[in-house]
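## Example record

The block below lists the input lines for one assembly entry, exactly as stored, with component labels intact.
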Amino acid sequence: MNHFDEMTCLLYLEGQLDADHAEGVRTHAAGCADCRGLLRALQTESVWLRESLEADDESVPARLVQAPQHGGAPWGWISALGLSAGGAYTVWSGFIEPWRAQAAQAGFTQGNLLTMLFFSGAFWKGWDAMRSLMEFLAIGTLGLVVMWLLRRHLRRSTALAVVMGALALMAALPPSAAAAEQRRGDPNYTLAAGEVVHTDLIVSADSTRIDGDVEGDLITFSRSVTVNGHIKGDIIAFSQELRVNGPVDGNVRAFVQNLQLYGTVAHNVLAWAGDVNLDQDGKVNGTLTAGSGHLEVNGKLVGDLLAFSGDVDINGQLGRNARIRGGHLTIGSRAEIAGQTTALLRQTPDVSTSAKMASPLDWTLAKHGSETSYSSGRYYLHQILKWGASFLFGLVLLFVVPGFFFDAVKACSKTAPAIGFGVLFLFAIPIAAVIVCITVVGLGVGISAMMFWAIAIYAAQVLVGAWLGEKILGEAAGAGAALGRLALGLAILRALGMLPYLGGWISFVVVIWGMGAVALAIYKNMRPQAAAVAAVV
Amino acid sequence: MERRKSIGEMSTAELADLLAQVRAGDSDAWGDLYGQYAPAIFRFCRRALPTREDAEDATTEIFMKVRQKLGLYDSSRPFTAWLYKVASNHCWDTLRRRRIRQDLETGDLETLPLEHPDPSQLEQLQIEHDSKHVRAGLAKLPDRARMALVLRYYSDMSYDEIADTLGVRRAFVGVLLLRARHQLREVLAESGGGLHGAAAGGRA
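Predicted structure tokens for the full assembly:
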């Protein structure tokens, strides 16, 4: 006798079979003990499932007792949004716009912050690379959209075929897109005179010496780097010491302790260094941007100078403007400055009477960081506007990613893990981003990581603020209540941040704590099954 | 929808009156409506979502949606049906956003055992496991399987409603339910009792 299968039996019990089919099952079961037994077992299972699901063994949590309210007093929203808008304007006009203007003054004229980051950053590799990146992103996005549209028709085999097809396509791409020679020193590395590297050259060694020519970029991680040959691309260096004697057709981007420029750089120099020296034989045809302890400009700089330095000595030729922010400025007797020189200094500058300057030095004395003007109303207005900016950011977070927002706020309760992860993320992400930028993964991922890192730093105070508000007023039921708690928590954090001496440390701990909470929330969302199992246990 | 969890003792007229007051912006009426239905919706969320915290958040968010969308509610239909529809859509969206749908939508029918399971082993499984075991087992199921069982055997949704909520074809709902039952049997058998045979089928 052919029995009905379990699927048919279940559909029969659930009343999902048409009349003829149901009659067939009924007739068969009347004469078949096996099928009657199965029908009875399935029916019992249905009842068992219903009873188990209906068993009410959990109380309703207290936070759900009160109905979530929305809307609230319109004036509250209007004033909060007004303050937020004011805060956003303050952040823009007080920080971003001046920075952008300073950068534009120094020759970074691409228009806005984002394009500046992309096109003037340390790793800008030219339009070809950017076009490839954009094409890749466009194709990737298109692929995701298509997969999303077809998601209901995809089977495992289809997905596998898509993945394999994508891998095959990647394998078929011309290898020149990521061409670079990688050399490792043992422990030192020398590119001999007369030798030519036709692609980018990536070197990691204790000491690196480049006497030959490099037709692409030179990217180096070394304790000491000396470049005597001709570099036709950029120099990107992470080292203790970098000495450039030969010509560079591109840019020099240096993250070093000591930078010495004796050759000619055809484009710009960007240096984050302890000491920077443009020797009198050295020449930079573009701009020089330096964040350094000590900066000496003895050679010829055709473009602008932008310096954030403890001490600045100018004894060379500057073809355009100089904008300096730092401790002390000396303009020597051999200095020739064709443009304007403006400076924000902590000490009175020394300007030689023999120096040739197109216009007099325009300088102002900077107040010391700790000399906060607590008696000034403007200071408190500024604090209120900053509070508004952070509240606005929290508002956006809450409405755009509410799940993540509440997860991260909850994660703040786990103080020790949050702070531990926070320390890790604060330092690990920038390092990872730099490494990613110079590997085959590329610029886009590295810059995205840095932008995420910056956003996470700002978000940290918002999350800790929301947590603090909840601790004081109790858990929030609904977005309105959460915003009220956020506003209170942010106000307290802002007030604590205003404390002399301690304020800075408190803000630092808040950043670490909040970043850790972000990390924990991301971890939770990436490991949902673990959470489910934990809940059962 | 054949049957719905009983929530509240309010008559149709009283409910209509209460809804009208909520639509008019009466905060007290909103509080009453919430108090009447929130516990049931929380219990539904508790069964549909993996953790208690998720269920708490979801309950709050569902009622915020309800308040926003109350104007769209067709009063000719039962309010509880509409409320459960909003709740189930929200829970499924939450799970989907987390991208933790492990199972395939069209889950091949041929992967299901076509032979009968052993009824005696099935009954033994039911005897050995109480409601707490079942609830714990449910939490270990893939989200789609858990949602299907909850929508069908807790919320009493029809196959059409389940298909609509989970975004699958109606013909697939039965497959989904049967497979979810098999997965639950396997989870329970592994957790104690050694009843693998019940899931695997006993005879041809």
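Confidence is low (pLDDT under 50) at residues 1-6, 100-110, 193-204 of chain B. Chain B has ten helices and no strands.
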